[in-house]
Specification:
mainly beta, Lipocalin, 10-stranded antiparallel beta barrel, 3 helices
């Protein structure tokens, strides 16, 4: 069974469970102060990249990401952890870009829980990105490996609407906007034009990293999320949104690097 078929089956199973499960409905109705979800998300869109150590122009591709994680909320606190794996099919020049990395986020509610439909959160997150590119047409410069780590300031605004006529405290829909700003970033980037000799006694990651240089940069980009949640009575949540994620080294380092993802996504949060 290939990965795409497996993914479809998991998605269908999650949908059936979310619509049919009644075991969590009573817990949601009782409004317990603690909530815990398992998360699954799929992003599809485009990637635009400038990496002058490979080619001196901007190239693009089609991107897909898969993210798994969990969310925990208690009182006015929110913690989210996830692991992302994505792959992009690059064009002109043709190749592939594989991106992966874990991230963790903490937010604090700026307003006390109430019947108010508006919710504002503020906090911080730590995100990482391992960027591995293969562009065969470049010959012995066809492989590149970069690592990024960001400390971000995060703000989130939510607005509840479409309240249940039978239960005025239950909103069926929640619109949201999220903004993340990397206050400080550290990166490991090649200081040569990716011309790598690959000796047999060295592993590939070690060989690629040995010619890298450290880069320190404040305000290395930003990320935004805009979308809405569908809040089911059993505590499960479907989300649909648009994400723009931009990362750059600016003028730091030997070769400038910029990467932007434009994606639409659907996510499912399974309440435990």
């Amino acid at each position: 069974m290939n990965f795409c078929k497996l993914l479809k089956r998991i998605t269908v199973l999650a949908l059936m469970v979310s619509l049919c499960s009644t075991g969590f409905a009573q817990r949601n109705k009782e409004k317990t102060p603690n909530s815990f979800w398992l998360d699954f998300r799929v992003d599809v869109g485009s990637v635009t990249c400038l990496d002058k150590s490979t080619v001196p122009f901007v190239y693009t591709g089609l991107n897909r990401d898969y993210t798994f994680g969990f969310t925990d909320e208690w009182g006015r606190n929110h913690i989210h952890f996830n692991f992302m794996w994505g792959k992009s099919a690059l064009v002109s020049p043709s190749g592939t870009q594989t991106a992966l990395g874990p991230s963790i986020e903490y937010l604090f509610s700026c307003l006390k829980p109430s019947a108010n439909r508006w919710h504002f959160w503020a906090g911080a997150s730590v995100t990482t990105l391992f960027d591995f590119k293969q562009i065969p047409v470049l010959g012995n410069a066809s492989i590149s490996f970069s690592v990024f780590g960001n400390l971000n300031a995060v703000a989130l605004a939510q607005c509840d609407f479409a309240y249940d006529k039978k239960d005025a405290t239950h909103p069926w829909m929640t619109a949201f906007f999220k903004f993340s700003l990397p206050v400080f970033a550290i990166a490991s980037r090649p200081q040569f034009a990716y011309v790598q000799d690959l000796p047999k006694d060295r592993g590939l990651p070690r060989t690629l990293l040995r010619n890298n240089e450290p880069i320190f940069k404040p305000f290395s980009g930003c990320a935004t999320d805009l979308g809405f949640n569908v809040n089911l009575r059993n505590g499960n949540i479907f989300s649909f949104g648009y994400r723009w994620d931009f990362l750059t080294t600016g003028k730091k380092g030997t070769y400038p690097y910029s990467n932007a993802f434009n994606t639409v996504y659907v996510s499912f949060m399974f309440n435990l």
